[in-house]
Specification:
This protein is α/β, with parallel strands linked by helices. The protein has one domain: DHBP synthase, CATH 3.90.870. It is about 30% helix and about 20% strand. The chain has an 11-stranded mixed β-sheet, sandwiched between helices.
């Protein structure tokens, strides 16, 4: 694409300011960025740039029937993406955000291309200071695991770069992933909470906070 830059790997620990500046510039230019999270590495783009989010689907070979999750820097950003906030959402956010919990909320009407949402948008606030700072400066990002769909997510950014190559503008190196598990996903866009995926947070903890059993998808 016009204005595209040669992809590069930048260590956050060695030069945080340069890494963050370069990532912000790439995201605002419509590039994809691979970034560390509190779980596995993610590949992300401006949530409201349809060309950029479309590139994530292409790089991952991800069907659009699997919509892209959105990372936010604070709960208010998540609430702004939702038509209304279920009471269970505030309870779970108070207990687990920032952290490895993704909530599917009733989607408000927005102009974006993140896949077939079917009325629900998946949102999460990660427990990762550098990523939160990036989100605070550029706004919500569409971010999903940095892997080809159906394959494990490599634990290092160097291995991920071998997969995606120049399809990604910037690779932020945050060391080896702290977890091999993705986030736990709870759907609150239905009549009652549904556990879509049990990840880093056990289902028993979700049920403890809600003080009720949760149906499984």
């Amino acid at each position: 694409m016009a204005g595209a830059v040669v992809s590069e790997i930048i260590s956050i620990s060695e030069d945080r300011d340069a890494a963050m500046t370069r990532a912000r510039g790439a995201l605002r230019a419509g590039e994809c960025v691979v970034m560390p999270t509190d779980t596995v590495y993610g590949i992300g783009a401006d949530a409201f740039n349809g060309e950029a989010t479309g590139r994530i689907f292409e790089l991952k070979r991800r069907p659009r029937s699997l919509p892209l999750p959105i990372l936010v820097s604070r709960p208010k950003q998540a609430w702004a993406l939702s038509s209304h906030v279920p009471p269970e959402a505030t309870e779970l956010v108070a207990a687990f955000w920032p952290g490895a919990l993704t909530l599917i909320l009733p989607e408000t009407e927005l102009t974006w291309e993140i896949g077939d949402t079917r009325g629900g948008v998946a949102v999460r606030m990660p427990a990762h200071d550098d990523l939160l700072a990036l989100l605070e400066s550029v706004g919500p990002l569409a971010v999903t695991s940095a892997n080809v769909t159906g394959l494990p997510t490599p634990p290092t950014v160097q291995e991920i770069a071998e997969v995606f190559g120049d399809g990604v503008g910037v690779y932020l190196d945050g060391g080896t992933s702290p977890s091999e598990q993705g986030s736990t996903i709870v759907d609150l866009a239905k009549d009652a909470p549904v556990l879509v995926r049990e990840g880093a947070i056990p289902a028993s903890e979700i049920e403890r906070v809600l003080d009720a059993p949760v149906a499984r998808a």
